[in-house]
Specification:
It contains 24 helices and twelve strands. The chain has 651 residues and is of the alpha/beta class.
Length: 651
């Protein structure tokens, strides 16, 4: 009891100022009653009962007292009495589940009623309906994997597309669960989520699929579970309009559920598996809730204690008072009407913003019913930046700023929180802000206070790895810049050396030429004989150079000729286009000069055609399966799947 009294307070104490008008009204009422009691000084006592209507006066006084009492209760309710704290989550659950549905031809086997694919779809429907929150994605695969829906919290979208799935809409036959796992990991990574659960619903895998799955699966980030569909006896596969599925020898295919590869996969990768059952115990045992699937650097689902507003209980006290006032007609008196206008009608008449997302400042109506922290919690999902400005609690401000991408504001909010959780959040904000070294120090402080803080330890390892990678990149950039400077310096030295060699060569050539001119005619003959071989080599080089120039000239002439022909063709096309446009304009002018009744007939005819076309379109059945089939076929062609080799088993 004493604890309850100590914790009792008002969340909005400023509303208690509304009691001042009630107090003033109460004083005026007492003064009026005292003034009414002075009639005995002017009137004889035996005449007062006949001159004053005491019953009407008592009724008026009782209605006034009821209004004062209703005013008091309303003011106390608006002030927000509170004495209890309740935990309030401020972060949405990001539990990610990707369902991998086998849609190979063997899933059309009818060894389970009605067939394997339908039973698997029914099981997926049960899973989606049971998931109250979190993100879910659906992938169907055969020889290739295709995304039906990406990660979303819209359960209705997935349920609407499930009936459209069929093994006969898949573009490529076969069964490749490894491709579905790779696509699922890519979907999760593109969304920015660090961990996820993968639920593989299949009627069997092959031994070579184990090696493929081990190659593509990242067990550190993804937890794979297998739900097996089918029986060991198997059943034929009924192909629409084609009888039963047959192999290359013409024998009817009886796909059987072989659990040996699934058990081997479970032993090698510690993958849990279950056989399909009629109840929910199969998938519930696979999708455990104790696996923490949080996002990188923001994985903790933070909860803060919030004072619970108990003022709504006082509203029930107003109901009988309102009924009594309505019966007495007090609600229609001018003072009561004004009171209702001030408390109810005026907040509703406030101008609203033209934009639905314009929530820059809280309205009086919002402040009337919600605290700033409650307003921030409401805006946290849609507008976290605005929620950060509404929150008064620093931890909530930090969370909202972090989700809005304002990591500096998040740092300021978490800076003074010296608890393990506060240091952890502070480290996350530092890491996102690029301050890796300071983030490691914050994580160390959190782990020092709570050594069992697994999230802090995991995030510290991630940040430490990012810091090492950053340092390596800086070293590589420094080395590349040094190498570039050395290469530029070496290039300058080579250019200087080449310039000096050319200068020496030119000087040597000039000196040789002067010497040859100074020689006598008899002395020039031996020099010519001595350089005969060099002259022959020079002549050969000149001949090759001439041939090269001749080829270049021929190519240039051919290019010019082609350009000239292209120019002539373009001119001819432009002339043809001009003539065609002139003919079309003439036809339009002739149609414009025709009588008006003929135009109206053509318009009526077009409307009839449009109506007939609309009726024809309405007869086309709405089948989303065709849309999915075209989508999968388009994706398959985009991936150049036609050039891949076919699988050994096509079902």
């Amino acid at each position: 009891m004493m604890e309850w009294i100590q914790q009792f307070h008002f969340l909005r104490p400023l509303w208690l100022l509304a009691l001042l008008p009630a107090l003033l009204f109460f004083i005026l009422l007492l003064k009026r009653q005292l003034g009414a009691g002075q009639w005995h000084k002017a009137v004889d006592a035996h005449l007062l009962p006949h001159l004053l209507d005491n019953s009407l006066q008592r009724n008026n006084h009782s209605g006034t007292w009821l209004i004062l009492f209703a005013w008091l209760i309303t003011t106390l309710a608006l002030a927000g009495p509170s004495w209890q704290k309740l935990p309030a989550p401020v972060q949405k659950n990001q539990d990610a589940l990707v369902i991998l549905l086998d849609m190979s031809l063997s899933m059309a086997a009818q060894d389970v009623t009605p067939d394997r694919a339908t039973r698997a779809i029914q099981k997926i429907t049960d899973i989606i309906r049971a998931r109250q929150d979190g993100l879910t994605a659906l992938i169907s695969y055969s020889g290739e994997a295709h995304t039906v829906t990406p990660l979303t919290d819209d359960r209705d979208t997935i349920q609407n597309l499930l009936p459209s799935l069929s093994p006969f809409i898949m573009p490529k036959p076969g069964s490749r669960p490894d491709k579905a796992i790779a696509l699922a990991q890519q979907l999760v990574s593109d969304t920015g989520i660090n961990h996820a659960q993968l639920l593989l619903i299949t009627d069997g895998i092959q031994h070579k699929d184990i090696r493929r799955i081990k190659t593509v699966l990242d067990p550190q980030r993804f937890r794979l579970s297998v739900l097996a569909v089918g029986t060991a006896e198997g059943a034929p596969v009924a192909v629409p309009n084609s009888g039963f599925l047959r192999d290359g020898s013409g024998n009817i295919v009886l796909p059987q559920l072989d659990l040996k590869p699934i058990r081997e996969l479970s032993q090698q990768l510690s993958t849990p598996w279950q056989a399909l059952r009629f109840d929910d115990s199969d998938w519930q045992s696979l999708l455990t809730n104790d696996v923490q699937l949080e996002q990188q650097l923001s994985s903790q689902q933070t909860q803060f204690d919030q004072w619970h507003d108990q003022g709504y209980w006082l509203i029930f006290l107003l109901l009988p008072i309102t009924l009594m006032l309505f019966r007495r007609g007090v609600l229609f008196m001018p003072p009561a009407t004004l009171l209702l206008t001030l408390f109810i009608i005026m907040p509703l008449l406030q101008p609203q913003s033209a934009l639905a997302d314009d929530q820059s400042s809280p309205s009086l109506w919002d402040n009337l019913w919600q605290t700033p922290n409650q307003q921030g919690a409401k805006l946290l999902e849609s507008n976290p930046a605005e929620a950060a400005s509404r929150f008064e609690h620093p931890d909530w401000q930090g969370v909202a700023a972090y989700r809005a991408g304002d990591y500096q504001q998040s740092l300021d909010a978490f800076a003074n929180n010296q608890t393990a959780t506060g240091r952890y959040n502070y480290g996350n904000a530092l890491a996102q802000n690029g301050q890796y070294q300071e983030a490691l120090a914050a994580y160390d402080e959190a782990l020092q206070q709570n050594p069992d803080f697994a999230d802090a330890r995991e995030n510290r390892a991630i940040v430490e790895q990012a810091l090492k990678q950053q340092q390596q990149e800086q070293q590589q950039n420094q080395q590349s810049s040094n190498q570039q400077q050395d290469s530029e310096q070496q290039q300058k030295q080579d250019q200087q050396q080449q310039g000096s060699d050319q200068q020496q060569s030119s000087e040597q050539q000039n000196s040789n030429q002067q010497n040859s001119e100074q020689q006598k005619p008899g002395q020039q003959k031996p020099a010519k004989q001595k350089n005969a071989s060099e002259q022959n080599q020079s002549s050969q080089e000149d001949d090759s150079f001439a041939e090269q120039k001749a080829r270049e000239n021929a190519e240039q002439k051919a290019k010019e000729s082609a350009e000239q022909k292209a120019k002539e063709n373009s001119e001819q096309e432009s002339k043809a286009n001009i003539e065609q446009e002139a003919k079309e304009n003439a036809v339009q002018e002739n149609q414009a000069q025709q009588p008006q009744p003929q135009t109206e007939t053509q318009t009526d005819l077009s409307r009839e055609e449009q109506a007939a076309m609309q009726q024809w379109l309405n007869r086309i059945p709405d089948e989303p399966g065709n849309l999915l089939q075209r989508k999968f076929l388009y994706q398959y062609r985009q991936q150049a799947g036609d050039n891949e080799q076919q699988e050994d088993v096509l079902w």
